Amino acid sequence: MTDEVWDYVYFKDAPLPGTSIPKEKLDVMRKEFQYWYPIDIRSSGKDLVQNHLTYWLYNHTAVWQNEPDKWPRSVRANGHLLMDGEKMSKIPGKHHITQRRM
Q1: Residue-level pLDDT at 62
Q2: How far apart are CA 58 and CA 14, in angstroms?
Q3: Residue 49: its pLDDT value, please?
Q4: Residue ranges of the chain with pLDDT lower than 50?
Q5: Distance from C-alpha of 42 to C-alpha of 67, rounded to nearest angstrom
C-alpha cells in the first residue's frame, strides 16, 4: 500500500494510482470508506475533550481541508458514572458491584 493508493481511497479527486492492486479492489475500498465517512457522531468521555477529541477534529480538518463534507458532523461528551465517589472505570470488579446494586 503506497501513499498514492491511500490517496485514491480517501480523496475523491485523487487519480488512479500505479499499483498491482486491481482497480475493482481499489474501488471497493474507496466505496467502503465513502460509506462510513463523514462520521455522524463520535461519542467519548468528557476527560478526552482537551486532547483526543480536539486533535481528532484538527486532524480531520487538516487532512480533508478541501473536502469539508468529510469533517465530523458532531461530537458528544459523556459524563462519568460514579459509584461510592469513584469513577466506574477505576473500580475493580465493577460489573459484579453494579449487578448487586441493581
Answers
A1: 94
A2: 22
A3: 82
A4: 94, 96
A5: 19
Phi/psi of residue 10, each to 5°? Answer: -90, -30
Helix, strand or coil for residue 56? Answer: helix
Pairing mode, strands 86-87 and 82-83: antiparallel
Helix (H) or strand (E) holding 77: strand 75-78
Please report the pLDDT score of residue 53 as a whole number. Answer: 86
Closest by Cα among 6, 16, 1, 23 to 63? 6
User: Do residues 72 and 64 make contact, with C-beta atoms less than 8 angstroms apart?
Assistant: no
Q: What single-letter amino acid sits at 69?
A: D
19 half-sphere exposure, CB direction, 13 A CA radius = 18
Q: What is the pLDDT of residue 84?
A: 67
* Nearest in space to 17 (alpha carbons), one of 25, 50, 99: 25
Global pTM reads 0.67
